[in-house]
Design a protein that fits this description.
Elements lengths: L3 E3 L21 H7 L1 H12 L2 E4 L6 E4 L2 H8 L6 E3 L3 H7 L11 H8 L5 H21 L6 E2 H18 L18 H13 L13 H26 L7 H11 L7 H30 L3 H15 L10 H6 L1 H13 L6 E5 L3 E3 L2 E3 L4 E4 L1 H4 L42 H18 E5 L5 E2 L5 E2 L4 E6 L7
Parallel strand pairs: 3-9
Antiparallel strand pairs: 1-7, 2-3, 4-6, 5-13, 6-9, 7-8, 10-13, 11-12
Helix pairs in contact: 1-2, 6-7, 6-16, 7-11, 8-9, 9-11, 11-14, 11-16
Amino acid sequence: MDNLVVLADGQAAPANTSEPPRRPKWSDTLQYIANPEKFCRDNLAEYGPIFKTSVFGGTTVFVGSAPANKMAFNGDNSYTKIGLPATTMEMFGEHSLFQRPDLHRDRKSALRPGFTGRMLANYMPHMDQVLNEHLQTWQTEQPVSLMKMIEEVSFDLLAPLLLGIRLDQGDSALAGLPIATKAELKQQYKTFFDGFYGLVKWNSPLTTFGRGKRARAKLMAFMEAVIAQRRQSGLAATPDFLSMMLMAQQDNPEGVFNDELVANQCLLQLWASYYEVSGLLASWMYQLGEQPEVIKQLRTEQAQVLGDDPTATLPTMEQLKQLTFLEATIKETLRILPPSSTATRTLTKSVLLDDMLFKHGWNIIAEPRIAHAIPEHFSNPNAYNPKRFLPEQGEGRAYEFIPFGGGVHACLGAQMAMVSNKLFAIHLLHKLDWQLLGKADFVQFPLRKIKGNYQIQLRSKSQVPAS
């Protein structure tokens, strides 16, 4: 890696090196959790894109420059290890990708086909059907909760693709399973997710972490029962993530997919996909609600690529790729409203990057809220400008645009999130218009998303006066 020097154990740094600026403060963790964006932006303005904090204990260096992001993402088994809080690591479980960096590459390579290429294309008919059914029922007579509406469609979109459960059959689809209703399944996921950043590792129902651990146990029992049910009914190459893993396990019993990894990956993949996709769809709608001219451009592009009725037939993957302005608006949403940090590492060796010393034992957090606000990365970064992501402008280069991480730890579900958003946009733009009802408040941590009490007004396009 350019300008990166890994120091040997006991090797002294050259005399001309410096450490990242800023003195860590006892209040850093509280300030970061209260408002990660403000914490990052304020310190970026005062200290630049690399600075020291005490977030989550010890010395934690926040980074946002491209070279520093690259350093943070690609050091596993060389000079970094996963540096997430102990509560978070326990919630991920011993069979998560994070727990065995020595097996990470092989496991990720085996999982990747479930979210790319032919499998992703095979998911599209289900996505299209669910989106069409949900949007037809959306209430246009009175204001509705944006987040609640999006979370409902996201869960019905993703749970069947990842677990093979037919949620269109209602709760009868969960008959005989340890969690018997969709409402309970969603609630257990919320409790599980809340436990990831419980600050006290005390396994008690009185703590967020303890409640999360109990939800995790219930969800794992549910996943194991789903797997057993699938095996009893006979394995078939159905278009879902669980089927892909079980078929691979059947073909190679000594390979990557042991039973524990399959169950744990189902648990984590539905959790990650559900929260990431629902947050992205809601944020995209919210940003577009303030941009009527952008909506007009999107509808024009849609008509040019897909015709006057873009929902009449299922788009092809090639047609989705041709919706370049739509993709640019999704990326601009991810740039302005990134859901979370994307890498937390602990240095196992001291390293020098451009003559700046990062010491053994320090933590590093790669923060999109910093990277996406650097003028050298994005011109006029505070402005909403999706055209910056079009080929002719060429912003959003590797390690500068990092909503899905980067390097060996880039998010597995990034392509699925983009395809989901594009199909959602096709149906929404064709069927409905929407009006924001004031400014939204956001949940800030651990994932940024619009609060559930924020409402919008939907109208069918026929109700909207021609402009």
